[in-house]
Write a structure and sequence with these properties.
This protein has helices spanning 29-33, 52-68, 70-75, and strands at 16-20, 25-28, 37-41, 47-51. A hairpin with a 5-residue loop joins strand 3 (37-41) and strand 4 (47-51). It is of the alpha+beta class and 86 residues long. It has one domain (13-75).
Length: 86
């Protein structure tokens, strides 16, 4: 899970920038640019504003949904030592 070294929050890979390849340090694109909002362009060419809070919450929801999915739950044994996300 990509974690920003500056703000300490988790973001999807699309919102991370590698700032040090040798030790793998990452920054979210928001900290990297010094902004709380960026503009994304989707495949159809439409622009969308994305806030730092929205990007973090969307990634958190994605990880939670993935963890709770049936396929993942079937892989995790009831007495597993896997840490539940968030």
């Amino acid at each position: 899970m990509p974690k920003c070294q500056t703000c300490g929050k988790y973001f999807g890979p699309n919102y991370c920038v590698i700032v040090n390849e040798q030790n793998g340090d990452l920054q979210c694109v928001f900290c990297y640019k010094g902004k709380d909002e960026i503009v994304e362009v989707d495949k159809s060419g439409k622009e969308h504003k994305v806030t730092k809070q929205y990007a973090e919450e969307a990634y958190r929801r994605y990880i939670k949904e993935l963890y709770n999915s049936r396929k993942v739950q079937d892989l995790i044994k009831p007495k597993s030592n896997i840490i539940k996300p968030y």
